[in-house]
Amino acid sequence: MRHPIILTLFAATVGLAACEQSGEAQVERAMQDINVVDETNLNDVMLTVGDPDEAVRYFANANANDPGRIDLQRGLAKSLIRAKRPAEAITAWQAVVANEDATNTDRVELADAFIRANQWDEAAATLNTVPPTYETFQRYRLEAMVADSRQQWDKADSFYETAVGLTTRPATVYNNWGFSKLTRGDYAAAERLFGDALRFNSNMFTAKNNLVLARGAQRNYSIPVIPMTQIERAQLMHTMALAAIKQNDITIGKSLLNDAINTHPQHFEEATRALEALENNTSN
C-alpha cells in the first residue's frame, strides 16, 4: 500500500533534482554569457586605453590559454603595433592571416606592419593578395606609400587622391602626400597639401613644420598665418632658419634664430646651439 507513495516521492525527488540540474545549467550558461561580455569589454579596453606593453602581455597570455581564437590573435597583433614593435607584429599578423577566418582587412593590417618595419617589397606583395574590389581608406593609403617608396609618382598621386575621398579625416593623408611632393621638389604643391592637412587638423605640428620647410625651399621665409602656440612659433622659426641657412641665406637664418630664441618662453637650447655654431663659423 505504501508503494504508490514511495513512487510519488521518488518521482518528486527526481523531478526536483532535474529542476536543480536544469537551474544549475541555466546559471552556468548565464555566467558564461557574462564572462564573454566581460572579456569583450576588457579586450576593447586593452586595445584602446590600456598601456600597450600591458596589452601585449594580456593578449599573449590569452592566446596561450585559448589558442586559435582569431579575435585574440588580432588583439595581440594590434597591441604589438601600438607598442611600436613592428617586427613582432608582423609575425602576429601572419598568424592572423593564416587563420581560416582571416579577412582582407587583416591582410591590409599585415601590409601596414611590413611598412612600419621598412619592408616595402613584402608590403607590396601582401597588398597584391587583396582583391581590387576591396576599396578602403587604409588600403589606398598604404598603396600610395608603397608607390612613393618605388618613386611611382603618378600611381602615388592617384592612390592618395582616392584615399582622401574615402575618409572624413584626411589630414594624415594630405600630410603624407605633401611630403611626397616635397621629396620630389614640387614645393608649391607640397605647400598646398600641407595647408589642406591643417584645414582638417589645425593641431598637427608635423604638417606645420613641413609647411614651413616647403615655404623655405621656395625662399619664402615668412611664418605662415596658421594657429600655433608660442612654443610652436619658436620651433617653426628654428625650422625656417635652418632652411634659410641650407640655401646659404645666412643673414636671414641668423635673424630667424634670434627671433626663435626670443620667442620661446623657456631656454631654446637647439636654436641657441645653432646660432652659436653659425656665429663661430662666420667669425672663422
Automatic annotation (TrEMBL):
InterPro entries documented for this protein: TPR-like_helical_dom_sf
Tree of life domain: Bacteria
Protein's recorded name: Tetratricopeptide repeat-containing protein
